[in-house]
Specification:
Elements lengths: L3 H6 L1 H11 L2 E4 L4 E4 L2 H9 L4 E2 L6 H6 L9 H11 L5 H23 L4 E3 H18 L5 H19 L4 H12 L2 H12 L5 H7 L14 H6 L1 H19 L2 H9 L4 H12 L5 E5 L3 E3 L2 E3 L4 E4 L1 H4 L36 H16 L4 E2 L19 E3 L6
Parallel strand pairs: 2-8
Antiparallel strand pairs: 1-2, 3-5, 4-10, 5-8, 6-7, 9-10
Helix pairs in contact: 6-7, 6-17, 7-8, 7-13, 7-17, 8-9, 8-13, 13-15, 13-17, 15-17
Length: 390
């Protein structure tokens, strides 16, 4: 039997054991079926006839005040996703990185530089991601970015709690319900559309003068707060991986073009999203186990991304790995719509970090302290550097 505490401390040894002996396992503590092998995880994410993202009992429905994109199906999912798609597309992301993300990263790097020391996760990577993505969404800097960053971290806590602490869920629900500033922006954009992602979410593919209702906009935007901080976590995981491999860190410093490969490999090796939830539409057999209809599935993409049947030496971070395919952003119709944005922003934050703080290194005594299971964060990244401006 697997305990959630084992998975929260370090899921990878547990995943390796389960892939060998029990690739589909019942976790009574959270009343979910844990799926660990590549083939089975891929099937859960792509077989829409048997598995659905609709999860009526999910705490995210209450916290977000409605159904986020991740849990929509059918026409509702297609409609909202298609409205969001251009705002997160590769073409839009490329221009956004140059015009917005890089200047934001340089500004935050300039703020932390004089101290000569910081937790790069909290003081650099998360602020860069939050400010830049808030701009892209159309919420602006300042309070909009800070609100989304706070909401993203609250949602992370709810996702990782699996409903075990009702008080934590209630606190998060109350915080996200205090959304006056957000709804004010929504009202303004209803009357005065612009080119932002939020504006497109309101108006794209709608009759003139008939924008989408709040139920199709506000819960979706609140849940997108996770995507606001996710690029920061991915950048943090990439830096942690490079810190653990001096030779690869040197290679990246000598050739910054390798940063893209490093970010992609970090997403496979230890991406922020560890588990994706699904529900069985009918009784089905998976990994040799019969699973009843209406069962909750925890599809462990983090385990699939280290499946020995797919990757050579899967526990090793290798930025020169030939196989780049992974499930870090899921797959199938619910493949993450921000899959171009997240790595581009993570890479940009790292590029600027190495440019502005070339002597950055782990603080004496620093040790990696990751936490979380469904969403896994690298923990503090205590760093020091020569505080003289570069």
């Amino acid at each position: 039997m697997v305990a959630v505490a084992e998975l929260e401390a370090d899921p990878y040894p547990v995943y390796a054991r389960l892939r060998r002996s029990e690739p589909v396992s019942w976790i009574p503590e959270v009343r979910q079926w844990l799926v660990t092998g590549w083939d089975d995880v891929h099937r859960v994410l792509t077989d829409v006839a048997r598995f659905t993202t609709d999860q009526p009992g999910s705490p995210m429905l209450d916290v977000c005040g409605g159904t986020p994109l991740l849990m929509r199906e059918g026409e509702s999912h297609r409609d909202v996703r298609e409205a969001l798609r251009p705002g997160f597309g590769a073409r839009r992301v490329g221009g956004f990185v140059d015009a917005v993300a890089r200047p934001v990263a340089r500004g935050v790097a300039g703020e932390v530089c004089p101290a000569g020391r910081a937790d790069l996760a909290a003081d650099y990577f998360e602020p860069v991601a939050a400010i830049a993505v808030a701009e892209l969404l159309g919420l602006g800097r300042g309070s909009g970015a800070e609100t989304l960053r706070r909401w993203g971290n609250l949602l992370t806590g709810v996702a990782n709690d699996f409903g075990r602490d009702p008080a934590a869920q209630a606190a998060a629900t109350a915080d996200l319900a205090a959304d006056t500033a957000l709804t004010a922006v929504v009202r303004r954009l209803r009357a005065e559309p612009d080119g932002s992602v939020l504006s497109r979410l309101l108006h794209a593919h709608r009759p003139r003068g008939d924008p989408r209702p709040d139920a199709d906009v506000v819960p979706v935007l609140k849940h997108l707060a996770l995507s606001v901080v996710e690029p920061g976590w991915l950048a943090g995981w990439t830096l942690a991986a490079l810190w653990s491999s001096p030779a690869q860190l040197t290679a990246v410093r000598d050739d910054p073009a390798l940063l893209g490969a490093a970010v992609s490999e970090a997403l496979r090796w230890s991406g922020p999203v560890g588990v994706l939830g699904r529900r069985t539409r009918c009784t089905t057999t998976l990994g040799g186990r019969e699973i009843p209809a209406d069962s909750t599935i925890a599809a462990a993409v983090a385990s699939a991304n280290r499946d020995e049947a797919v990757f050579t030496e899967p526990d090793r971070f290798d930025l020169r790995r030939e196989v780049r395919s992974h499930l870090g952003f899921g797959t199938g119709p619910h493949h993450c719509p921000a899959s171009a944005l997240v790595p581009a922003l993570a890479r940009t934050a790292l590029e600027v970090l190495f440019e502005h703080l070339p002597s950055v290194q782990p603080a004496p005594g620093w040790q990696l302290a990751p936490h979380g299971w469904k969403l896994r964060l690298p923990g503090p990244l205590d760093a020091v550097w020569d505080a003289r401006p570069s």
